[in-house]
Fold this sequence. Notes:
The chain is α/β, with parallel strands linked by helices. The protein has helices at residues 4-22, 25-28, 41-46, 77-82, 101-110, 124-132, 147-159, 199-204, 223-230, 241-244, 249-263; strands at residues 53-57, 60-61, 65-66, 87-91, 115-118, 137-141, 163-168, 183-187, 213-217, 236-239.
Amino acid sequence: xxxxxxxxxxxxxxxxxxxxxxxxxxxxxxxxxxxxxxxxxxxxxxxxxxxxxxxxxxxxxxxxxxxxxxxxxxxxxxxxxxxxxxxxxxxxxxxxxxxxxxxxxxxxxxxxxxxxxxxxxxxxxxxxxxxxxxxxxxxxxxxxxxxxxxxxxxxxxxxxxxxxxxxxxxxxxxxxxxxxxxxxxxxxxxxxxxxxxxxxxxxxxxxxxxxxxxxxxxxxxxxxxxxxxxxxxxxxxxxxxxxxxxxxxxxxxxxxxxxxxxxx
Length: 264
């Protein structure tokens, strides 16, 4: 039986092939951002002046449907940075998440903190694309691609001056980790069923090799959870829906940070 993730990946392969024709690699490399240096997400996550939160910009998702359909990056991402976000994650998948590469480009042009391109990365072209549109970090999902492809795409990202967030959901997927990966993220949401269990991060905390920084993703909605996950060695927390479901995501993030500081 085909899962939602299988469906997304199948569509992504077709989409990438069309994009290669629409905007050939040689043209992509001419984008101004392609040769610009980008900030380090690891450094910003470790900064005592930041919150450790990677605040996400997204309009919808397969699990939640429409979250904030008319949201614009310039009305949200600056607020995230000013309130102490360590980085910003931007969804660039259009069909399932309502995002675009223009969202990524806009966010990168506005921010001084690193921007993560969050998408289903399956091809080298997408890594070049991420760089051309201003990403500092790419996401590689263990459940989507092979060990060989992970190593290949992560290596290319490093060649282009970007960092790599490697996402897992279960212990078995840790077998795919590459030495080219910078950060391991535990997605508390199962991408095959979209069920969420924060205990995934707790169960996997000690399984992740110590050379990798680790972050927790999805299902985090209160400062107490962030504080608890820190005790398990997590140094970053990717959060999106918690803020994007509000009328003013930036203000929602600011309120969360205020509560978080009160807990420290």
